[in-house]
Specification:
There is one protein chain. This protein is mostly helical. The protein is built from 17 helices and three strands.
Length: 408
């Protein structure tokens, strides 16, 4: 059944909008009038256009994109309704009006339409990989096969919420130092581009020999004032180039290789990948997805091309009969603790349980490492700012002291 987007007036004359399914435009208008709403415009929502809008990068998409928190909330509500005995179609239909995001409402309407047409829920979710990950789709597929949709939806909601909570803790830890860095750069720019020239012009007009620090400060200030746009151009060019390089296979591999071998960032990236790998693999195995398909899914979420290649190579070895822990150890890209816990899990028959423990350990380690780095970064920033401002003050004061000596 086609899906239509409408704008209408309610009985109080207030404008409303939403999604409705009907056989055609005329049927949609009649259905709206039957519910006491007077349609202004009714247009069919084409599935291809929705998918195109999701994948397209634009400023507007930053505000209209479907956030993981919305997906988690919808998943938990759907699990509650299905557990209460609602048919799947009725449950999805009940959630559409409660969804705040217009884009997500359209997607849910198309998913409901696909289920009504006879497709499985997993097949109906798969056309929207930007919203529902391969992990999500495969776990739903496994639940439909085993008849445990309610339980799996609850677990998916838990996984999504934990991942978002983990990301939010990292963002919160990094927000303050990044904000302070930005403010510090802006303050230095204003000092060197506007305030310092107004002060140093007094010294240059006196035509007397200036100390070396003062001359250096004047030259730096003049350069920034005249060529500030060069810094802006280089920054934008660097960002655009980096984005373009990351879109190529060779470029992304090169960047990911550099990241892994950086002194502090490399070990942290490996721990983040190990946490994602362990939690996702544990969830898939626990919900009935076999090991080889699970590894094929997990390699796409580790966040690093080299580690993804290592997972793929390990999957080939597992297919030949090797153990997962031993196969992953060959790459030397996973932390030794992760390898040991996987091997213990394989030997004890509790691989899923040990994978969850491994994920928790590395998530806690990543969070504590970032907290330590940000705590160290704050005094370093204060020290750097103090040295720069102190140099500026000293460079301005030195000529004043020399003039004072001449007066005496």
């Amino acid at each position: 059944m086609p899906v239509f987007e409408y704008k209408a007036l309610n009985p109080k004359g207030k404008k409303v909008s939403g999604i409705i399914d009907a056989e055609g435009v005329v049927a949609a208008r009649q259905k709206l009038r039957g519910s006491g709403i007077y349609p202004i415009s009714v247009s069919e929502v084409v599935k291809a256009s929705v998918k195109r809008d999701i994948g397209k990068f634009s400023i507007g998409n930053l505000f209209t994109r479907v956030r993981p928190a919305e997906v988690a909330m919808m998943t938990r509500q759907l699990a509650t309704l299905v557990g209460a005995g609602f048919p799947l179609v009725s449950a999805i239909d009940s959630l559409i009006p409660q969804t705040k995001s217009q884009t997500f409402r359209k997607i849910l309407a198309h998913i409901k339409e696909s289920v009504v047409e006879g497709n499985t829920f997993a097949d109906s979710l798969s056309p929207y990989p930007g919203i529902f990950s391969s992990l999500y789709v495969n776990m739903v597929h496994a639940s439909e096969t085993s008849g445990t949709l309610e339980i799996v939806l609850e677990r998916l909601a838990d996984i999504t919420e934990k991942q978002e909570a983990f990301k939010n803790r990292i963002r919160t830890a990094l927000a303050y130092p990044l904000l302070m860095s930005l403010i510090g750069v802006l303050v230095l720019f204003l000092l060197l581009a506007y305030i310092v020239p107004n002060i140093t012009v007094i010294f240059t007009d006196m035509n007397q020999a200036l100390p070396a620090p003062t001359l250096f400060l004047i030259h730096v200030s003049d350069f920034i004032k005249l060529y500030w746009w060069v810094f802006l151009f280089v920054l934008v060019a660097f960002a655009v180039t980096l984005r373009s390089v990351r879109r190529t296979v060779k470029g992304r591999r090169f960047i990911d290789k550099i990241i892994l071998f950086l002194p502090a960032v490399g070990p942290l990236s490996k721990k983040v990948a190990a946490a994602r790998f362990s939690r996702t693999l544990g969830s898939l195995l626990e919900n009935g997805v076999s090991l080889l398909p699970s590894l094929d899914i997990v390699k796409n979420i580790v966040g690093n091309v080299l580690i993804a290649d290592a997972v793929e190579a390990a999957a080939r070895e597992v297919g030949k009969g090797q153990g997962l822990g031993r196969s992953l150890a060959a790459s030397d890209l996973f932390p030794s603790l992760c390898i040991q816990m996987i091997q213990v899990g394989e030997q004890s028959g509790e691989l899923e349980k040990l994978l969850y423990k491994s994920a928790t350990v590395f998530e806690n380690e990543v969070e504590s490492t970032i907290m330590r780095l940000t705590a160290l970064l704050e005094p370093v920033m204060i020290l750097v700012m103090g040295v720069i401002v102190g140099f500026i003050v000293l460079s301005i004061c030195l000529p004043i002291f020399e003039m004072n000596q001449l007066i005496r």
